[in-house]
Design goal:
Order of helices and strands: HEEHHH
Number of helices: 4
Shape: globular
Strand content: 5-15%
Largest sheet: 2 strands, antiparallel
Length: 64
């Protein structure tokens, strides 16, 4: 699957709280990306967030 086409359907929102905005990554979207074989680094680069953010969100998903 073409990486850029896949990431055009970004499912990312930012909360409107005081301080640094919180990045909300869609659970199903992240699972789909991982199943497609994308690395955390590739996901982070294309969603314009840190690799740590992606890693932490995936940990939250798998522990829930």
């Amino acid at each position: 699957m073409d990486l850029m086409r896949f990431f055009k359907k970004r499912r990312v929102t930012f909360s409107n709280l005081e301080g640094r905005p919180s990045l909300q990554l869609d659970r199903e979207y992240l699972q789909q990306l991982k199943e497609e074989g994308f690395s955390n680094r590739e996901i982070a680069r294309n969603l314009n967030c840190s690799e740590g953010t992606v890693r932490n969100r995936i940990k939250q998903i798998t522990s829930a």
